[in-house]
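Researcher: Checking consistency across runs. Here is Arginine repressor again:
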Amino acid sequence: MKKKERHHLLKQLVQQETIQKQEDFVDILLERGIEVTQATISRDIKEMQLIKVPSQSGGYQYSLPPEMNFNISKKLSRLMKDAFVSIDTQKEFVIIKTLPGNAFALGTLIETANYEEIFGCISGDNSVLIICRSEDQADTFQRRMISFV
């Protein structure tokens, strides 16, 4: 598994699970068939700047740094209002056109939001291609994005 993919997975784990030790990361990844050492996880934690915060169950757990715990909906709304040009669908594909230089940020926010209807997302300079799991989900996603404008 590449580092970028591992970091994305670690970020999801931190948001969805209570991770108290580096070994917890190693164990969860191993359960998913991904072999990784504790030393690699330690480096990942430093690179991702994960922090430990008090856990509701007592003790401490890993968390994203404060600047990464942003409200995705607010950021999406602001970016769509500022840079949106057009949106269209064809079957399970949705294409969003933006002002030049804004599509990569939009694609990143869409991927970070982890919408269940999205299979994948490809960003360029002024367009984002979103591949949905079905035509109906593409229509749902298009309506969701239009609501931000």
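Researcher: Does this match what you'd expect to see?
Model: One thing to look at in this run: The helical segments are 3-16, 22-31, 38-48, 72-83, 103-113, 135-148.
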